[in-house]
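Q: what does this look like with adenosine-5'-diphosphate bound?
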Amino acid sequence: MIVGVQTLAGFEKTLHYRVPERLAPLAQTGSLVRVPLLNRTRLGVIASIGAPADFPVSRLKHVLEVVHPFPAMPGDLPELARWMSAYYAAPIDTVIEAMLPASVRKGARLKTERTLRAGRPFLQGELERLEKRAPAQARLAAFLARQLVPQKKSLVLARLGVSAAAADALVEKGLAVEEERRVERTAYADALADGELVAAQPHVLNEGQRAAVEAIRRRLAAGGFGVTLLHGVTGSGKTEVYLRAIQETLERGGGVIFLVPEVALTPQTVGRLRARLEAIAPGHRCVVWHSHLGEGERLDGWRALASGEAKIVVGARSAVFAPVSDLRLVVVDEEHEPAYKQDETPRYNGRDVAVMRAKLRGALCVLGSATPSMESHANALAGKYALVELRERIDNRRLPLIHVVDMRVEAARQRTLPVLSGDLARAMRERFEKKEQTILFINRRGYSSSMLCRKCGHTEECPHCSLKMTYHRTDETLRCHLCGHQRGAPLRCPKCGSPEIRWPGLGTQRVEEAAARLLRDARVERIDTDAMARKNRLRELLAEFRAGKIDVLVGTQMIAKGLDFPNVTLVGLVDADISMHVPDFRARERTFQLLVQVAGRAGRGDRAGEVVVQTFTPSEEVIQFSRHADFAGFAASELEWRRRFGYPPQRHLILHAFRGKNPDKLAFFAEQWARLVERELAGRVELRGPVEAPIAKIEDTYRWQLWYFTNTVTRAVAELNALRARFQWPDDVIQTLDVDAMSLG
Ligand code: ADP
Ligand code: ZN
Ligand code: ZN
């Protein structure tokens, strides 16, 4: 048997090897193997079986080992890897490495335990004889004979007070059988620790949900590839629709991948999902996949899916590569989430890979969101995706009232710029008196965004990055949020020595302080990555918040998503302008999403909610559209603007980033390269730049960039790659391509 192997060693080409007789039964397409290559042992994946006709077979080396008894990359995965490599301009081995968890690549051992079960039946009078001569053996044999399932050896011996020698003797006689059994490690076994009761009962669908489920069911019944965009307002019950689609798929014998953003994988949601899924599909196990899994847990999950033992996986981005057998449904919840994009090579978007995987498999892909990405929305408008809408919130709960506060007016009235406007403060007091809860969002951690000298105007930047340092009052430091550099907060201006320092701009700590000062008897807590440094802190705080022990929760967008707290009736967005005025063509889209998601957190229980949005630019279109939760209006205006400037989804955007320690050299080579591209690819890609990246320096490394706009990504990538291979890059300039970049540098 000859196989073509895609090695994980920097070779694009597959290499051929002979499979020795003893390994042949295990070797199939997608199997992970170890092969000799240039005097080393390398990992590889069997990409093809057989060799070209006139192939010189005799001198081929042998495959050394087949790592797992199941193919690590079954079915469509090798083809998906090739597509990703071509589309995302990533070497094939980096793609395969992203697809296969480290524990699978290493072939880590499955955790096992030794078990004992009864062997052959007793002969006439055998047990009685044993009782006299070897009472310990008899005790064990009699115990095992009464058990229905194998027992963990160490436990049984300890409990019965029987020695290992006695057990061995029984095994010798054939009266007991000792076996090795795999131990299944399940992530979030204690998932319900935050005190929520899991409702495993399905809901009775409302009319909208029923129609949505019906539409999806028809597509599933028809079979074949398709994409359905499930656009449902916040609180419209999308999860229930996914669950029914999953149930339908499992009943038809198909497998399912369910992707959620990493942030949504809280124990709360996982516990709820797992309970529902396991109730939906009795006998099916649900594998949970996220970044905090241990290596062993990952390997177990992978094996359970690859062997067909589990047919469903719930997980973050990389779960899109799970070896689910007979995959028929891929669900991507919150499809607009930037978190689906990986920010290192291969820079893939999990949502787009999900669509491609469904295409290769002939499966249905369901994308869900309250605020679909412009890309998916445009595809639905063009008829490429089927559109299913949920327009009503569950039980016709009203969307919260959104109240926009003009901070310019507020500042003029109060003669100073307050953290909390009069309206927000009033509303918070009211809620506190009624024992209802408030969430305050501010998308910046720390105390203030920068330090500013009143006398000379100096602001303190990070010495390693071109970014202002953020003031953290809790420990009196200035910190760089890019590289982590910190120094003590100065008492005098480092430049002119003046003691008149101001701390403009808001951060979570300042908002927390203002809230605590406003409501002196209230319990105010803060959730951001600084506060969460301690393990399990997030979980504890959320549990206490749910239990009503916290009155006001201040946080970054960490808490904007997926959490469902019925007693929260007021949400304040303290500074809506932070996300609006960044130099990115997606800034408005992000702001709209943020506002709608934040508003969705208010009034999920029976009580009506209220949202207060503070901004200096209340007339901005995006604020007005989100005030009325007018997605269609926003999207129409946004798409029109994108069309005019040729931004995605009109065309694809590829970001070419250059990094180096010497800024002049960097600029020089970026210019040279741009000229070459202009000459060679004229008319096929449109070029912008090169320019300094919006953050021109990070950790003492300078950054320049170029954008390409194109309608045909794979071709553009191939052409750029061919040119890149020809160009003389200096060793100290690092360059990367980011296809469908999510942030502009
Ligand atoms: P979305 O994801 O669309 O924002 P969810 O799926 O989180 O909404 O559902 C919102 C809430 O409504 C959840 O608490 C959910 O359990 C509940 N829910 C969903 N469907 C129904 C239904 N048909 N009847 C009653 N409650 C429902
Ligand atoms: Zn100064
Ligand atoms: Zn820095």
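Residues 203-206, 209, 232, 234-240, 394, 564 surround adenosine-5'-diphosphate (ligand 1) (CB under 6 Å). DSSP finds 23 helices and 30 strands in the chain.
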